[in-house]
Amino acid sequence: MKVAIFNGAGKPVTIEERPEETPGSGELLLSIGRCGICGSDISMTSGSAFDYATGRPIGHEFAGEVIELGRDVSGIKVGDRLACIPSGPCGKCAMCLAGRTLFCSEGTSLFGGFGERKAIPATAGFLLPDSVSMAEGALVEPMACGRRALRMAGFEKGDRILILGAGNMALSMIYWGRQLDAGRIVVVSRSDKRDAIVRAIGADATIRLDEEDPGAIEAALGGPPDIVAECIGKTGMLQLAVDKAPIGGTVLSLGMCTVPDPVIPALNSFKEISLHFPIGYSFEDFTETIRTFDAGTFKPEDMVSDTIALDQLPEMLDAMRTPHTHLKVMVDPHLECTHG
Ligand SMILES: [Zn+2]
Ligand SMILES: [Zn+2]
User: Fold this and answer.
1) What's the pLDDT at 213?
2) How many whole angstroms from 113 Cα to the centroid of ligand 2?
């Protein structure tokens, strides 16, 4: 079966033939239907200290159809469609019970979503209702992060949310803010290229980062933000987020900046800022994301700008290393390559 392999920064990702996986006890085999390209598939293959290990399969935002069951799997049948938690959490250890599935002591990496098939523990698979498409199934993983972040921020109904950036994490924050009855939601971003989708998901206003005049944010929000979410991940943005927060405000660092991004602690103390660094999601965040996709009026599939074949992935990853206009790009490993 084919799977995408990371060969080190500066070298193209290659699509390679690897042995078929067979599901062991408690596992099942997924025929992968869609796998989304994450910002980390770009940033963690670019030569930073946080790069994925060389030789490793990549792709962690995936959903698929069950085509084979291992021993001792109950409650799931062949033909079911599942979204997958790619850290393979056990669901039983202290970290899993605390809602920190990414830190599961028994966890096993299930990367390899950019591939044709993948054996996963049944505990990592979450049933998709008929109304949720395969592409939306692959959006569960990135979208669950926003719900976890709002929980960490102590979000309450009516809270005004300011979001710096319009990338995929920002979209997740807008989505959950709107679904959970936030007050006004305002997005500050560099360009207008994502304004349409940002508004479709639920933002009330967008403001340009460089043209922002004093007071514009509060005017658009109808008051000071209760929560400021930094979703850009570039040096200087964390302190900017703190600067935009009022006394007693809460700041979320979600940009996953991989280089130093200084804040001045005294400035933060003068406003008693609460600063949080959420990552990942709990099992409940995952199931609630699926339930909300099922119940909601906004179709998450509208966030998908491109669906490409596996063979087109290396070229797409390189294209996404420079400024681009793609939203969420999905790989469909069953799609025949239409060029080259
Ligand atoms: Zn991701
Ligand atoms: Zn665990």
Assistant:
1) 79
2) 21
Q: Which residues contact 323 (CB under 8 A, 6 or more apart)?
A: none
- Where are the chain's structural domains? 2-143+281-331, 154-276
**What ligand has the least distance to the C-alpha of 100?**
2
10 alpha carbon to ligand 2 midpoint, in Å?
A: 35
- Tell how far the Cα of 247 is from the centroid of ligand 1, in angstroms: 32
Ion ligand 1: protein residues whose beta carbon lies under 5 Å: 38
Distance (Å, whole) CA 278 – CA 135: 25
The rounded Å distance from CA 189 to ligand 2 centre is 37
* Residue 278 structure tokens: 């959420």
- Amino acid (one-letter) located at 306: D
Q: Which class is domain 154-276?
A: alpha beta
Q: Which ligand is nearest to the CA of 92?
A: 2
Spatial separation of the C-alpha atoms in residues 230 and 211, rounded to whole Å: 18
Quote the pLDDT of residue 289. Answer: 98
- 192 Cα–ligand 2 center, Å: 41
Q: Give backbone dihedrals phi and psi of 141, rounded to 5 degrees, phi first.
A: -60, -55
pLDDT on residue 336: 82
Percent of the chain with pLDDT over 70: 99
Question: Residue 338 has what pLDDT?
Answer: 59
Asked whether this chain's domains 2-143+281-331 and 154-276 adopt the same fold, the reply is no
Phi, psi of 219 (to 5 degrees): -65, -45
Q: Which of 188, 194, 192 is nearest to 328 (CA)?
A: 194
**What spacing in Å lies between the alpha carbon of 61 and ligand 1's midpoint?**
6
103 CA to centre of ligand 2 in angstroms: 7
- pLDDT, mean of residues 79-83: 98
At residue 273, does pLDDT exceed 60? yes
CA 223 to ligand 1 centroid distance, Å: 32
- One of 2.60.120.10, 1.10.600.10, 3.90.180.10, 1.10.238.10 is the CATH number of 2-143+281-331, namely 3.90.180.10
Q: What pLDDT is recorded for position 339?
A: 54
Tell me the per-residue pLDDT of 197-235, one tens digit each, with 9 for 90 and over.
999 999 999 999 887 778 899 999 999 999 999 999 999
Average pLDDT over residues 98-125: 95
